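Table S5 (text form). Sequence records supplied for joint modeling of the two-component complex.
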Amino acid sequence: MAPIHAGAAPPLDTGRTNVSGLFWYPVALGVAGASQIVLLGGVSFLDIGCASAFLAAALIVGRRLSRYAASSPSSVPLPDDGVEFKAVCVRSFDVWSRQIDTSRASANEAVLRLTQLFEGTVGKLDAALEAARATLSEIKGEGGVLGEVRRGDDELRRAMAEMALAQRRREETVGEHTRGLRDMAADVQSIAMQIRLLSFNAAVEAARAGDAAGGFAVVASEMRQLALISGETGAGMVKKVEVINAALETFVRERKSATDSGVHSMEGVDAVIRAVTERFARLATVLSEAVRVLEAKAAEVHGDVSEALVSMQFQDRVSQIQQHVVGGLGALRDCLERGGDPAALRDWESRMSREFSTAEEFENLRGRRRAAAPRSNELTFF
Amino acid sequence: MAKRILVIDDSPSLRQVVGIALGRAGYEVVQAENGRDALAKLDGERVHLAICDVNMPEMDGITFVREARKLAAYRFLPIIMLTTESRESRKQEGQAAGAKAWVVKPFQPEQILMAVSKLIAA
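The corresponding structure-token record, covering 504 residues in total, follows.
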């Protein structure tokens, strides 16, 4: 910035010369004309009168022309001491300072609002991604719904297998018992048959022995009675065993039927559960893919967010530079109002640059204008 | 428990930008608009690190660092200077006052987070 020299007079306006010229030129012509009249016509009263009238007319014209020129705005001369120029500068500095402060405040407010909106948007994106991840974890993760359903289905199958095994064991046990009862009944009948045979043999021997086997014949007769009773009891046991076995087999059949029906129902339920589980798993796969795409987009957005955070810092930089300009205008204004201390003005650039902080300001001071703020990555650890 | 970081800058938008970068990394952020405001905040809350601008009204950043170092609880508080200042003389002033790092704006979020994690862990 070139130094300002206080008290220097502005160049004199040429309007003053033009005003005097407009008066004297007609007057000069009038004098010349009057002289010619007298020289050519002589010194008669008529000639002198004409010359005088001519000269008067020239004076009137000159005066009117000069008055007209004097009233024109372009001919007003500037003051010699530059006071008004300084006053204009002071007023202009005030206006410019206010304009810069107004624009700076407006821009700060707008960027702050933009930053808040930006933070809100990024927060919503992060929340949406977190919600999607939580839902997916709820479905597919450790302890998730899909796992629970699959575990439940596994337990159902185990229960079905246990039911079938229990039924088989029941059938085997009942079969053993019915066989045992049949065997026992057959044994009783066999014993009864043997007793009968023995009683027949005893009767035969008693008949052979005659009167000498009197007691033996009684025993043989009792044995025959016992054989008859045993036979009847054996036959009765066989019938009872058959009835019991039939009842047991009916019971086992009915239990088997119920078990088969239950297992069949459970198989139906199992099939439905499996179908639902598989469909759920497919949906979970689709959701998983959607979350993967969302995560990829979120990663891109995060990169953009980092770039945006760097760019948003420009307003702070611009605001500082504007602040320094306003400060400089204020200091210069004060200097002019105090009459412009030559010593202060000589050192003006040095004083102004003490307030600078950004590299662009120093570059501009040296006349090397920067196109944009530097994208600095400077980080120093002490 | 999240580490608490005090961000000191006279620009509300700059405090917001730093807050976004730190908040997304899980730090809790406390804001102050100049050095004097920051000292008052230190009196009321426990912070683990401060990020401070240099040129601020009422109390500049380098003065804040000197004053903070006089407080018994914050003699060793890690302080990162975050500033547009590019003059080497100012950087040396910051180092002499007790700052631990000097970052020139505009900063990259990853850069500031790396500095914070290094100094908080130290």
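Note: The mean pLDDT of chain A is 78.
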